[in-house]
Amino acid sequence: MGVSTRFRSTTAAGVIAVLVLVFVFGSPPFGSWAADNANGAGALDLFLSVLAWPSWDFTLDAPARDVLAMVLRAVLVVILTAAFLTALAWPRTGNAGAQLLTGWASVVFAGAAAGLIMGLVQSDASAPAVFALISSGATYGIFAGWIVGLATLRAPSR
């Protein structure tokens, strides 16, 4: 028995949403802007700085291993979100709350897993550094995952 079109369209809607989040808010211009302007103690400043977590930049003056880890993190957030959306879509019953939470949880899990993998690839692979990246990835999922959850909420059933 194959995967129903409902699950495939839900995954597609979530992947498009997370791809836009990573492409726009992880971009070097937004990352620079957020570092310069979103450094206060307010909720909006925290939200904007967390949105920049899956940043990607090929021009950094850093070791190649760290640049690779950064780019890999952004790619993995998208790929792992798709994987978790697909895996978590099976038990869904059509309940709007369950659909929202499935999309949201997928990004939390994907962010934490991407942080773990990034931590193992980067040049400073100490346990505290890896745990900090896992925490940062989960925090990204908590703050940005609801957007993906909303995108998957009423994905088309075609």
Describe the secondary-structure layout.
Blueprint (H helix, E strand, L loop, with lengths): L4 H21 L2 H10 L5 H9 L12 H26 L6 H26 L5 H27 L5
Helix pairs in contact: 1-4, 1-6, 4-5, 5-6
Describe this structure in words.
- The protein has 158 residues and is an all-alpha fold.
- The chain has one domain.
- It is built from six helices and no strands.
- The chain starts with a helix and ends in a 5-residue tail after the last helix.
- 37% of the residues are buried.
Name its key features.
single chain, 158 residues, mainly alpha, globular
The total strand number stands at: 0
- Elements, N to C (H/E): HHHHHH
Instruction: Compute the CA-based radius of gyration.
Output: 16 Å
The number of distinct helices, counting runs of at least 4 residues, comes to 6
Beta-strand level of the residues, as a percent range?
A: under 5%
Give the low-pLDDT segments. Answer: none
Structural class: mainly alpha
Instruction: Give the fraction of residues assigned to helices.
Output: over 70%
Averaging pLDDT over every residue, what do you get? 86
Q: Which of globular, elongated, flat, extended, rod-shaped describes the shape?
A: globular
- Count of discrete domains: 1
CA distance, first residue to last residue: 17 Å
| Biggest sheet overview | none
Keywords: Membrane, Transmembrane, Transmembrane helix
Transmembrane segments: 67-88, 100-121, 127-153
